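pls design
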């Protein structure tokens, strides 16, 4: 899962990025509203964490531009404590949730997990697909109840496919959501990761639809 963090306070941005990375997400950062608007308008993210008090272009204006352009990714707004009018205005502008500063990192990560699940129609922290179960809180994948040892990249790939279970995901989409901008995005490397995963998840866990992409079915074949 690839997230955009928009925060101009370097200390807060560094701490939030570290917490989200530890939770299994790929995090891109922007420090002002203009860069944030451009990134959110031209690239696909699974969620945006957006501070409203930004330089150059304020966060509320960024959000309104995204929604006006038809961008539908979930947005978690960060606001100053007690700024209830700002929170109301943010939600009216299209924010999906808000969190007041200062906040606990555990709560922020939990809200991010919930928003991403909700955006794909999943209500619970555990996602089941066939013989597999993804526990988003524990960052653990199990097959028929047995936990599997996955690398961070293998976990991210499995989690993305399971969040989108029943849908064929093109390789280009997987590459965009699994890697940061500074990482190489190579289709051959992706095929190698899928091959390793099949040895761990089971040979039929991830289907290949030639010319289209990869699929984790909702029910076992």
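designed seq:
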């Amino acid at each position: 899962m690839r997230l955009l963090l928009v925060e101009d306070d370097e200390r807060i941005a560094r701490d939030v990025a570290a917490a989200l990375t530890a939770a299994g997400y790929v995090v891109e950062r922007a420090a002002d509203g203009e860069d944030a608007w451009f990134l959110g308008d031209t690239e696909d993210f699974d969620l945006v964490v957006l501070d409203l008090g930004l330089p150059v272009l304020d966060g509320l204006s960024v959000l309104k531009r995204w929604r006006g352009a038809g961008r539908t990714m979930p947005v978690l707004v960060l606001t100053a404590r007690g700024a209830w009018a700002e929170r109301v205005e943010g939600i009216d502008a299209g924010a999906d949730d808000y969190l007041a500063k200062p906040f606990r990192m555990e709560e922020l990560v939990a809200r991010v997990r919930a928003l991403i699940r909700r955006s794909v129609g999943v209500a619970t922290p555990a996602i089941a697909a066939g013989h597999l179960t993804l526990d988003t809180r524990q960052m653990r994948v199990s097959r028929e109840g047995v936990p599997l040892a996955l690398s961070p990249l293998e976990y991210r790939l499995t989690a993305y496919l399971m969040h989108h279970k029943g849908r064929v995901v093109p390789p280009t989409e997987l590459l965009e959501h699994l890697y940061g901008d500074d990482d190489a995005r190579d289709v051959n490397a992706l095929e190698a990761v899928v091959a390793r995963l099949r040895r761990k998840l089971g040979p039929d866990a991830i289907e290949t639809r030639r010319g289209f992409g990869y699929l984790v079915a909702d029910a076992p074949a």
